[in-house]
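dumping this here before i forget
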Amino acid sequence: MIKGDLVQHMERLLADRAPFVTATVVRTAKPTSVRPGDSALVLADGTIEGFVGGVCAQASVRLHAARCLETGDAILLRLLPGAEPGEGAEDASGADGVVVAHNPCLSGGSLEIFLEPQVPAARVAIAGDTPIARALEALARTAGYAVQRAGADDVHPGAGDAAVIVASHGAGEERVLVEALEAGVSYVGLVASASRGRAVLESLDLPDALRAVVHTPAGLDIGARAPADVAISILAELVAERTAHGPAAPVPAVTPPATAIDPICGMEVAASAASVHLDVDGERVYFCCEGCRTAFAARGSQDVATH
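structure:
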C-alpha cells in the first residue's frame, strides 16, 4: 500500500501526467529484508522511490516495471533465488498475470510484488466555450479521457494528444487546426456546417492531404441536433478512429525498455541510468547489484595484471 511521503509524490506525478508504476510487496519467504505491505514508486527512468527489497530485487523490479509501462498491464512479479530452471521445470510465468524472475543474486528467500502501471489518460483538447464544447468536455471526462477545454487562444495541440476538437463558432479556428494537423494529432474535428467547414479548410495554408484529415462536420452522422447528442456523435467517431488506427503516439517515455545482461551473473537488467553500471572503454556495462560490479571490476584488474 502506498503511504506516507509516497502518497504526495504519487499525487505530483499524476498531476504532471508522468507515467510510473506502483510496486507493493504482497508475500515474502524468509530470509528477506522486506515485509508484505512495503511499497515503492518506480518512475519511467527506472528510479525507485520507496523500498521493495535490496539492490538485487530492485534490478528485477526496475526491469519488469518498465515492461508494465510498455504494455499497460499489471503483473504479479514472483522473485525466486537461483538461476533459471532447467528444461521441463515448472514455471508459472505468463499464467494469469504472474511473471516469475529467477534472480541468481538474491541471498535466499523469495518475494511476490504486485506491479501496477499508472499511465496518463489520453488527452483530448477542446477549443471553445459553446454548448457543444461543454457537453463534449463532460462526456469525454466520463469516458476516462484527460480533457483540456479552453478558448481557442489558450489551446495548443501537441503530438501526444488523442484528439483536438474545435467548437468555437469561428473564433481562432484556423490556428488551432493548423497546429493540430502539423503536430500529427490522429483525430482533428471541426464543429461546423458542411459548407462552412469546407470554407474553413480551404482557407488553411496546408497541403490538401492534411486538410483532408479534418473531420467536419465533426461526429458520426446520427441525425444529432442537441448539444449532448452532437457530443455523443463526436466521441463515437473519435473512439472509432482510435480503435481502427490506434493512438497516434505513445505516452512520452513509455517505450520498450532497453535491456542488458549482467556479465557476472547472467541476469537480464534494465539498461537505464538508475541501474548499477560501470563505464568501460567508452561503453556502459550494466549489473544487477554492486557485488557483480565489484566482481567485474576485479576481474578486469586481474586481466590487466596477467598481461
